[in-house]
Amino acid sequence: MTVNKINLFALLLLFILCSFSCTQEKAQGQDKDGEIMIPDKALEGSTNAPEFPPDKMWLNTDRPLTLKEFRGKLVLLDFWTFCCINCMHVLPDLKKLEEKYPEELVVIGVHSAKFTNEKNSDAIRQAILRYEIKHPVVNDNNFEIWSSFGARAWPTFVLINPKGKIIGMHSGEGIFDPFDEIISKAVAYFDARGELKRSPLDIKRESKEANMLLSFPGKVKADPESKRLTITDSNHNRVLITNPDGHIIFVIGSGRQGNTDGDFATAEFNRPQGAYLDGDKLYIADTENHLIRVADLAGSKVTTILGTGKQARAYNQSGTGTDVALNSPWDLLVYDGRLYIAMAGPHQLWEADLKTMQAKPYAGSGREARIDGPLLQAALAQPSGITTDGKKLYFADSETSSIRSADLDPSGRVETIIGEDLFEYGDVDGSINKARLQHPLGVVYHDDLLYIADTYNSKIKIIDPAKKTSVTFAGTGRSGYADGVLSKAQFNEPSGLTVLDNKLYVADANNHLIRIIDLDTKMVSTMNISGLEKLARRDMEQFSGRILEIKEQTIAPGEDLIKLTFKLPAGYKFTDQAPFFLDWKSDNAQVVDFKTSPMDLDPKQLTSTVHLFLSAFEGKSRVVIDAVVYFCRENSTVCLFDNVRIILPVHVIQNAESRIDLGIDIVVSPLS
């Protein structure tokens, strides 16, 4: 039975779950303290939840799941699609619910794709890794589960009680409070009746992707004056500034997820996307913190200049500085003393005066659609990239698969160059009436043309805004990785691009790379990032790697040696840019103390050796060796790193060996 036939009590619950959007006045269904009154019959439900079809592809779990196996638990279904900004916004709420009810609640993502690219399980897997989703996800690529539950919008949530019956349904954001209320009452109700089973979910999660030098880079932006590139290393929660060849000049951010201001080594971000360098000031769209930050390159300090740190819930609310609430700022542009923001959450472009920090909507009414017209009467849909020719702002309107313009004259208009509407998309070159894109995220203006990151088509396209035509410039249309001639090169969801010295730089998000297209030779290559020692210290300070605990070793007093041999799998090589970063210590320096550590490294070999010399005295100690090892694929500049902590108990006694040999295998994920 579908949700369309849900009974009166379930409809009451539907009303209750929607009550968060009402005013604070007392409403029917609440007691004198404002607590929601939920009838027992509503918690019991009467409509059985339809079972999952048996032939679906499951991700983030080692086996297909059924609703039947979760009898005794509450189950919350999240109907989502990974392009959807509202679906992104609810993920923190889902995480909070999972953490609060780890043994009582099972969250299952039902991925019902909007775009063709999103039907692909590999693309969904990348989204799971990008958003760090911990719960299982089923690929509902033909909307079977969606239809059986009567879902009508993204995101939609269905709550199922421990008896397998539907007790509530809700669409939209702001889900934590209403679901926390009903789940807590349902837990108490079914626990009192002995019908609740408490136990953690026993499944194997999605394998973590190999540690890449970059992690889902969101945007790359050039500064022609300083000849520098800004790369938002989004899932590493940091920003890199490099020269055109990829040598790292600045690392901005500790790598920890947070919203702390401070110096470059301690500042925190949450998946930053767009950035724009204006002199010594780097403006950063700290997307999931809903903030605009500025990094002062002269003073090496990060400061918040716009945003409260909480997502704006109301539309069209102007404000100043840190008193104004923002909603998923995705890309930035500085022009003529003003900061223009592609604000994906409310489907608008915003502007801020950089002197007064007064911020307000610039284009878009807040309605999600493709409607041209006067700036604030037009409708946009998740703008995610922005550029200018000095007369117009051009932006990638991702949910309508459109490239559109907004006049810089405040009395001007929004016009569509290429694109149709929310569900009109494709991969078609040609004129305005024929051409189609698929969820573009990036755009840059260069020599009277617009270069487009046609993200879900995994292509780079060129649009002539005067002729209103679109042609494929690079990429086969199949997601993958391949350098070379334009027609055979492959990308995987490119999300940002910029031009410097007649080279087009592309943030190739799902390949975790910056690609370079030489506009003269028409060849695609991969940026070789160097200066890795600046990353290594950060990666070690923010240790999140694997730990190897070695059984206790005996060594003799006097001069001793620890020999570490690092072994790569076939198909990889060490990089001479920064082959190793090592740190070591002992918890009892009176027993073990280190002297020097020369390295015997051969980048051409699959093994490299590090010698640690130490002075040892009788007794016991624990040696901790931290290593960051960088390595690359053979015949490629695709590089990874392994972060490993070796814990080595030692017992120093007479007549023992004076050398310890340790072999360490480098970890390479099968998803890399």
Give the tags.
single chain; 672 residues; 7 helices; mainly beta; 11% helix; six-stranded mixed sheet; seven-stranded mixed sheet
Describe the structure.
Helices cover 11% and strands 39% of the residues. The protein is mainly beta.
What is the compact description of this entry?
Helices cover 11% and strands 39% of the residues.
Return residue spans where pLDDT drops below 50 for at least 5 consecutive residues. 1-34
Can you give the helix content as a percent range?
A: 10-25%
Overall radius of gyration = 27 Å
Please indicate the percent range of residues in DSSP E strands (runs of 2 or more): 35-45%
In whole angstroms, the N-to-C terminal distance is 42 Å
How are the strands of the biggest sheet laid out side by side? 1-7-6-3-4-5-2
SSE layout:
Blueprint: H1 8-17, H2 40-44, E1 47-48, E2 57-59, E3 74-80, H3 85-100, E4 105-111, H4 121-130, E5 137-139, H5 144-149, E6 156-160, E7 165-171, H6 176-192, E8 220-223, E9 228-233, E10 238-242, E11 248-252, E12 262-263, E13 275-278, E14 281-286, E15 291-296, E16 301-306, E17 319-320, E18 329-335, E19 338-343, E20 348-353, E21 358-363, E22 373-374, E23 383-388, E24 392-397, E25 402-407, E26 413-418, E27 430-431, E28 442-446, E29 449-454, E30 459-464, E31 469-474, E32 484-485, E33 494-500, E34 503-508, E35 513-518, E36 523-526, H7 533-541, E37 546-549, E38 553-555, E39 558-567, E40 572-574, E41 580-586, E42 592-594, E43 599-600, E44 607-616, E45 619-633, E46 639-652, E47 659-665
Parallel strand pairs: 3-4, 4-5, 37-46, 38-46, 39-47
Antiparallel strand pairs: 1-7, 2-5, 3-6, 6-7, 8-9, 9-10, 10-11, 12-16, 13-14, 14-15, 15-16, 17-21, 18-19, 19-20, 20-21, 22-26, 23-24, 24-25, 25-26, 27-31, 28-29, 29-30, 30-31, 32-36, 33-34, 34-35, 35-36, 39-44, 40-45, 41-45, 42-44, 43-44, 45-46
